[in-house]
Please model this.
Amino acid sequence: MRRCFIFAAGSFYGLRKCPAPGDLVIAADAGYRLCQSLGIIPDLVLGDFDSMPEPEGIAVRRVPVEKDDTDTMLALKTGLEAECDAFYLYGFTGGKRLDHTLANLQSLLYLRRRGARGWLYGDDFLWTAIENESLSIQKEVEWGLFSAFCLGDEARGIDETGFQYPLKNAVLTPEFPLGVSNHILERSAVVTVRDGALLVGWELPQKKA
Model:
C-alpha cells in the first residue's frame, strides 16, 4: 500500500493522519499555503495558480485554467499514476465553493472504482465511498453521527448493523436522503451495499486545538 496526502485550498480542521517517509504529498494550488502553515514540504505543487503565485524552489506542475479536471482531481489522478491506493484528503470541503465540495465528494467514488480508497476529512467528520462491498466503522464518539447517501442510481441490498436505525436489504435513492443522521451504537458498526455505491461519513472526536 502506498499512501498519498493531498492538501487543497478549502477549510482545514486539523491534521488527523500525518505524512511519513515514502508517502506522496501533493499540494493542489493554494493548498500549498496549508502545507506551509503545517511545516510540510510537498513533493509536488499542482494547479493553474489562479488563486496564488506559482511557488519557487519546489517541484511544480502548471496546468491550464480552462480544463475539464479541477486541480484536486488532477492531484488524485497524479496519485493514482504513482500507484497510490490510500488517499488522505485535507482542505476538500468548506469555504464559499459548495460546487467544489460536491465535486470532491464525488471524486471519492472515482478513487474507489480505480482500486483505491479516499479518506476525506471535514469538520470532525470523515467521508469515503463504498461500492458493492462492506465497510466496518469503529465507534470513536459516543452517540456518534453516521450518514449514507446514494451515489448515482439506486443503491440496493443495503444493511446497516450496529446503528440506532438499522437497515436490512434496504434501497437508497438519489432523490430522498433516508440515510442521513443515524447514530453509531456498537463498538464496530457495519454498512453493506450489494448493488450500487454509497457516500458514507461518520463523526470523529473533536480535534484538540
